[in-house]
Amino acid sequence: MAGSNNLKITPPRWLLAELTYKCPLQCPYCSNPLDYSKHSSEISTKDWKRVLTQARKMGAVQLGFSGGEPLTRQDLPELVQHARTHGFYSNLITSGYGLTEEKIIQLKEAGLDHIQVSIQASSQELNDHIAGTESFESKKQVAHLVKKHGYPMVLCVVIHRENIHQMTQILEMAEELGADYLELANTQYYGWAHKNRDLLLPTKEQFEEAEVIAQAYKEKVAGKMKIYYVIPDFHEDRPKACMNGWGTTFLTIAPDGVALPCHSARDLPGLECPNVNDYSIEEIWNESKTFNFFRGNEWMKEPCRSCDEKEKDFGGCRCQAYMLTGDMYKTDPVCIKSPDHHVIQEALDSARTSAFSNDEKPLIFRNSKNSKKYS
Amino acid sequence: MTLNPELTINFSPMHRLQWEEVQQKDVILYPEGMVELNQSSAEILKLCDGSRTLEQLVTALEEKFSTSGLTNDISNFLEDALQNGWIQQP
After folding, report:
1. Tens of pLDDT along A172-231?
2. Which of A90, A120, A197, B42 is 20 to 30 Å from the Cα of B10, by its Cα?
3. Could you tell me the pTM of the whole model?
4. Distance in angstroms between the alpha carbons of the first and the last residue of chain B
5. Nearest residue on chain A to B12, alpha-carbon basis
6. A266 or A119: which carries more pLDDT confidence?
7. Do A61 and B14 touch (CB under 8 A)?
């Protein structure tokens, strides 16, 4: 491993608290690991409070309560209150499923700043199919309640081949629900999405058409609703600046207390990700092997090593490099300078073939049964 | 959307203005995002409490920093702040 010793370590700014892997939904693009059923233990309320206090002291200020479905943790209001007392800005990242008005009020009183609700599509039929659970009407109801109680609201819609044709209706739905922000998150192909890639990856024509519609709508709703468009990196020629650089900004804590530089990092070999039950956040962030592994650029291979853009995109995503080339030190193959770039074209071709075939395989939904089967 | 000089200005309830000890900076926090402020921007925003119009805000700041001629700088910054949704008018 590299990770130069004299590198200046910046403090964490973003803490993603994945409270649980439990979720009533079964979205086939879930970013949780495929083998989440193996990591079913959850750290205690006391442990989470200690983690929040320590991370805040180091300078973390944005806090995402995520999962799984974070509402399944009964101590959520207590954790929100702890976060507020210490000055975090708390974001609840939820499916909205099972979120009652009483809970919305309780969380507001505890100091929750913002609620992000995910919706899977603009029609009930497709939403309920993708979510694997009847949830469309209750999600819309939740969105209304979130606005009724004065929260800023982000509506998050993950975009893929099954719903990309609904782009116009998705934009109209977000406006009608009074979203302050609409996040159009093109699927990132990790975990479950990687498994279902042939069925989810849209064609280039579909992407381009959807992007034109979204950009035009941006101007229409300027000053009222902000639209964040998360790029589909398979159709780019440069990789994303993943996590703003390894160990520079983001800290994820998984339900079992494992600390990760990004939420997919536990799939990388030999990282020995530390647990908050064994080390303080300061030790983990500053001293652990894991967080120093890809800091700086000493670890890079060619073509990254001599590339004049290495400070801009940090060689792209380590997890994607590992998943698609088998070598986590390689250039993210999304980059057209990568000698492995052909794997991206092969993935696009394979998805296109699947899209036009008459007997597509069914989606593999994210649930415990499939987790055990595919891990 | 431009500032109405007749109306008072208040900081948006959809954002939070906060001092960050580690960064030694005031920041604006909003859903999944943060803007770091320089000292003068922070001083202006702290006075956007719904009790002052643009002119009253300029007067207060000129008094506080014993200076004059701040109208253009403050009004330009607040126009941007309004576009960004950081401030509002009733």
Report:
1. 999 999 999 999 999 999 999 999 999 999 999 999 999 999 999 999 998 889 999 988
2. A90
3. 0.94
4. 13
5. A152
6. A119
7. no
Q: Which residue in A58, A89, A90, A226 has the most chain B C-beta atoms within 10 A of its own C-beta, making it the best mutation to test that interface?
A: A89
Nearest CB among B13, B22, B32 relative to A58 is that of B22
Complex-level ipTM:
0.90
For chain B, which domains are there? 10-88 (1.10.10.1150)
Instruction: Please report which helix (H) or strand (E) contains residue A137, including its range.
Output: helix A136-148
For A95, the token pair is 């499916």
B85 CB neighbours in chain A (<8 A) are 223
Q: Which of A208, A237, A264, A234 is nearest to A346 (CA)?
A: A234
* Rama region for A319: left / alpha / beta (φ>0; ψ in -120 to 50; rest): alpha
Distance to chain B for A199, nearest Cα, Å: 30
8 Å CB contact of B34 and A89: yes
Run of H or E residues at A251: strand A250-253
A91:B13 CB<8 A: no
Return the C-alpha torsion angle A211, A213, A215, A216, nearest 10. Answer: 160
CB contact under 8 A, B32 and A223: no
How does pLDDT run across A65-110, given as a tens digit for each residue?
Answer: 999 999 999 999 999 999 999 999 999 999 999 899 999 999 999 9
Of B16, B22, B34, the CB nearest to A11: B22
Question: To which H or E segment does residue B34 belong?
Answer: strand B33-36
Q: Which two tokens stand for residue B42?
A: 């922070």
Neighbours of B77 (CB within 10 A): 16
Kindly tell me if the per-residue pLDDT of A5 is higher than 70.
no
C-beta atoms of B32 and A13 within 8 A? no
Q: How far is residue A64's CA from residue A229's CA, in Å, rounded to a whole number?
A: 19
Min Cα–Cα distance to chain A from B31, Å: 6
Q: Is the pLDDT of residue A3 over 80?
A: no
* Interchain contact A62–B (C-beta under 8 A): yes
CB A228 within 8 A of CB A214: no
One-letter identity of residue A344: I
